[in-house]
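Human: Not sure, check this?
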Amino acid sequence: MSYKQDVAIKVDNITKEYKMYKKPMDKILYNFAPSFYENKVNNFRALNNISIEIPKGSTIGIVGRNGSGKSTLLQIITGTLNPTQGQVTVNGRISALLELGAGFNPEFSGRENVYLNGAILGLSKKEIDEKFDEILEFSEIGDFIERPVKTYSSGMFVRLAFSVAAFVDPDIMIIDEALSVGDEKFQRKCYNYLEDLKEKGCTILFVSHSMRVVEQLCDYAYLLDNSNLIAEGEPKEIIDKYHMLLYSQENAHYQTLNKIGKEKIEENVVSDISGEVTTQSFQNEKDVFIEGVTMYNEFEESYVFNTGSTSTIKLAIHSSIDAPKVLVGLRIRTTQGIEVYGTSTFYHNMELDFIKDKKYSISFKQDLILVAGTYHISVAIAKQDGKNDMIYFDKLSDFLLFKVEELPVSGTGIANLDSHIEINEMK
């Protein structure tokens, strides 16, 4: 296998299979007579023919749904798991933080585990002696360093584990979602340290469900799904594909709910959140009426979005009369009936003059800076009667449902203000 010196990690056609036995006895019988008991064994393929090259000094993110094979791939790269077939070549010292507790003895004190884990990572006792004070200071666990780690909280545990892994001066740093356990202050500290490692030329490979971190830190990203590598490219591109994959089933669910809602409106009955019943329909007895309302992400029809992503709400309108100065608007409300946002062509100084027997498409494009939740869309067509009154041609209350997701959740309320928190010691 050819290998370039400027490549830190080369994964060549890696496949990992596990044998799944119907009952424990089948495993014993299979080991004695594999061919005879083959029908009692199922093969589960955790990774399917994966090949990637990671350049030195790059920061790479691996994303995918739970069970897609991300952790298995990292374990094979670090050497804690053997592949069924294929080969991995690593150029440099690896420091890995794969899972909480890996390489730590719960009965040992924090100090003893620093030396144990440092030795596993390839450091001599002298090197650990020289780095010990830095490790302790970075971990912020104080006197707990002398206590057994089985008495540590998960946050204390990961702080110590990351501190040891970070201070071995690695050529390659591999992290499998472990930092999500620490508190926000320590997570920020760790990501700042990763930035420092990145500037020093360290290769960083990590699995994360925080797409903000992937987009902020990574130069490149890979998307795994169902044991296969299905996409690679710029982080933003891969994150978009990941969200499409993540929400595909839920999106189908919301499409079904909206289809049911449309059928109810076509039956002339719809109940809004306040409980009042309004008569609305798609029938053509109205002079100007809404034929359809559809919601899209950047690629296709969608009703499930990640917070901050772009949405487009598109109305199809038919006018059976000449109608000057028509206004088209929408309103977004929470399930509890709280108005989140409303706008119309009026606020954008747009006057629409509809012509008899013509059809129009009106699009509202906006970024959904909302916290996680389910939201309702109402749409309307009207003309102004005097300064304050409106005459409605057509109105569809709470016609569409859509959902906003956020991984991980960063706040509560309605609007997502995307706060950035800084902590500084005051003198």
In short: The longest strand covers residues 389-405. The chain has two domains: 7-245, 248-405. Residues 270 and 277 are 6 Å apart (CA to CA).
